[in-house]
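Module 6 notes. Inverse folding takes a fixed backbone as the condition and produces residue identities as the prediction. Think of it as a translation problem where the source language is geometry and the target language is the twenty amino acids. Below is one complete input and output pair. Work through it position by position during the lab.
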């Protein structure tokens, strides 16, 4: 009898220990090693073939992928490294659709995010986060000579950001939401140069332990940045001009037009083909936009509908630096068009496909 009471007490104590503070709900430091690197970026690796039509690019399409500088540009991108910046981390297969975007920074409410940042580019750069909580010194934006996390070429900075309730999903949001991060040394130049990435904040208890995994209540997640990268104002314009042929006059309107890269994650004309899912999956889409007054985008999915905070739709609107999180449960197999529904953007390359297997 006495033994039974003791063992019951032990069971209660162990049970309390397990369930009052489940291991997955503990606050954690989420540590990242991220550098800004200069890389040669290909907006349309499929050239000269348009994967959508299977035919060669048309004259109108070639304005963007062949004329002027063409489809290869030097850009600045955020890359994730292993501890101590020893090697660039290989992207998980589930994240190859990220394209030009920097690594996904993940945390759940209650965590702290620590980002070791190194600027390997020839221009000042930073990581300025949206949504999370930071002191001025970790803002990543210029502040009249004060130290605020803008990093000179070759230098480093360790950002520390908190993730309080107000950085996570609100009452009408799903279990995770997306924020942007980007360089804010010279925002217009830095973002057009390519320095942008996503932050995902999950509700407490919803983040999985493994890297590159979606929240616990979904099977798959995808990220899309709808942005016209204006290569006319990239920090790398002068370098890129050396690879220009034909009309290469920076004051010429035709040349300027050829440098407006209407991409989804920096890929144009159906070159982002890694949006692959299974029929019936619970799929979360994180939509982001950046740019200027032409960057009003209306992402549209064929073959499926989505939920956005309780509203059903198959088109969502985003404006520069806005973010939207949507859920989809695809129920018809196939390759489906996924494009911005602004006519001018669609024609200029802001289109791709998603695949339901
Ligand atoms: Cu658009």
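Target side of the pair, the amino acids:
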């Amino acid at each position: 009898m006495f033994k039974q009471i003791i063992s019951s007490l032990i069971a209660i104590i162990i049970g309390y220990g397990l369930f009052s503070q489940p291991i997955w709900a503990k606050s954690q430091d989420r540590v990242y090693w991220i550098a800004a690197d200069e890389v040669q970026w290909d907006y349309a690796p499929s050239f000269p073939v348009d994967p959508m039509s299977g035919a060669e690019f048309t004259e109108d399409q070639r304005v963007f992928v062949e004329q002027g500088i063409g489809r290869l540009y030097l850009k600045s991108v955020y890359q994730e490294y292993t501890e101590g910046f020893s090697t660039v981390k290989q992207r998980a297969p589930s994240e190859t659709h990220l394209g030009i975007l920097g690594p996904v920074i993940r945390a759940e409410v209650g965590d702290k995010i620590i980002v070791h940042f190194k600027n390997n580019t020839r221009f000042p750069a930073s990581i300025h986060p949206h949504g999370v909580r930071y002191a001025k010194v970790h803002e990543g934006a210029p502040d009249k000579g004060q130290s605020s996390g803008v990093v000179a070429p070759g230098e480093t900075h360790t950002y520390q950001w908190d993730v309080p309730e107000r950085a996570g999903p609100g009452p009408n949001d799903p279990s995770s939401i997306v924020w942007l991060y980007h360089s804010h040394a010279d925002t217009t130049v830095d973002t057009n140069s390519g320095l942008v990435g996503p932050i995902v904040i999950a509700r407490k208890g919803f983040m999985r332990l493994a890297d590159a995994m979606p929240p616990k209540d979904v099977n798959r997640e995808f990220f899309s940045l709808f942005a016209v990268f204006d290569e006319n104002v990239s920090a790398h314009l002068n370098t890129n001009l050396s690879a220009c042929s034909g009309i290469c006059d920076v004051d010429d309107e035709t040349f300027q037009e050829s440098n407006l890269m209407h991409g989804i994650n920096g890929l144009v004309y159906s070159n982002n083909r890694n949006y692959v899912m299974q029929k019936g999956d619970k799929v979360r889409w994180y939509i982001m936009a950046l740019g200027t007054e032409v960057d009003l985008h209306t992402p549209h999915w064929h073959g499926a509908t989505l939920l956005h905070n309780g509203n059903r739709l198959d088109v969502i609107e985003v404006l520069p630096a806005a973010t939207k999180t949507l859920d989809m449960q695809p129920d018809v197999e196939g390759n489906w068009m996924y494009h911005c529904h602004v006519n001018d953007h669609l024609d200029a390359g802001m289109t791709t496909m998603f695949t339901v297997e």
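Reference fact for the lab report: The chain is about 15% helix and 30% strand.
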